[in-house]
């Protein structure tokens, strides 16, 4: 009887663990289906991928090697890029894009920024100012303590009627925040963090203002009233029926996808 128990334990231990199935969901009111695993996030329409992370590897390598002659010595070159998924609300995917390396020139490069894509329309189609009234975004930016630290012209700051005018009134300061390039950041460098009553916490990332600060990223958090049109998709993401919010990214095991490339010795002609 003891031997049988030992054999049974051994057999159980030898049985391979079942593979984790990708998490899939269909976006209500659309023909988009998401598939998420620990290694990738994909969006499909009519059986075709319209968004993916692993599929970006070729573009990553091509962007580095384009125009590089095989006879060129690139042994001191290196590059890396990673995509860390932050939130998925309806057809909107938000992720952190980090890249860095050295591919010739005077110095290395490095950057980190949030990106939001509408998988039904393409990378640059999402615009936060189309989702929320600009007056609400402007009011929240004016009230934010971190933003107020960088007022270059207080009068222009307080009288600003647009987000663009507000950003123009800010200075980079010792933190080297890239507010002057920030209108596109407000539009697209965002993620949806959590819901508080009838408001949603939105994170907006800004890049750096000077090369000496390369690689730095600055995140501003705003609480914005939820428009009626956004409420259903946001509620489904909050409850993880379709997508998820940034505060739950770790709990749902949102993927991080990384690529790396190293240079090589030149080939003799």
Please render the helix and strand layout as text.
Elements: H1 2-14, E1 23-26, E2 32-36, E3 41-45, E4 48-51, H2 57-65, E5 78-89, E6 92-102, E7 109-118, H3 128-131, H4 134-143, H5 145-148, H6 154-159, H7 163-168, H8 183-188, E8 190-196, E9 199-206, E10 218-225, H9 231-238, E11 256-262
Antiparallel strand pairs: 1-2, 2-3, 3-4, 5-6, 5-11, 6-7, 8-9, 9-10
State the order of secondary-structure elements, H for helix, E for strand.
Answer: HEEEEHEEEHHHHHHEEEHE
Structural class designation: alpha+beta
Distance between the termini: 73 Å
Number of alpha- plus pi-helical segments = 9
Total strands: the figure is: 11
For this entry, what is the oligomeric state of its chains? single chain
Strand order within the widest beta sheet = 1-2-3-4
Largest sheet entry? 4 strands, antiparallel
Nearest-angstrom radius of gyration?
A: 23 Å
How would you sum up this structure, described in words?
The protein has 269 residues and is an alpha+beta fold. 25% of the residues lie in helices and 30% in strands. The chain has helices spanning 2-14, 57-65, 128-131, 134-143, 145-148, 154-159, 163-168, 183-188, 231-238; strands spanning 23-26, 32-36, 41-45, 48-51, 78-89, 92-102, 109-118, 190-196, 199-206, 218-225, 256-262. The strands form 3 sheets. The chain has a 4-stranded antiparallel beta sheet with strand order 1-2-3-4, with no helix packed on it. β1 and β2 (32-36) form a beta hairpin. It is flat, with a radius of gyration of 23 Å. The model is unreliable at 1-13 (pLDDT under 50).
